[in-house]
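Good morning,

Attaching, inline, the backbone tokens for the sequence recovery test we're adding to the shared suite. The designed sequence is right after.
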């Protein structure tokens, strides 16, 4: 679904939480995606999404 939204010019906006948020960003990473971070830019949370964070 996130990929379809991105292909139609609609950005995916979500937190970078585990599971569904991470999947939505991964599906839309090459289109349009915006993440809302819950902390400082140098503190990646959850740590499991470090690769996703670096892909932005």
């Amino acid at each position: 679904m996130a990929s379809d939204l991105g292909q139609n010019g609609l950005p995916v906006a979500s937190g970078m939480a585990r599971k569904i948020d991470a999947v939505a960003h991964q599906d839309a990473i090459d289109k349009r995606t915006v993440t809302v971070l819950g902390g400082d830019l140098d503190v990646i949370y959850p740590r499991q999404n470090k690769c996703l964070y670096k892909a932005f």
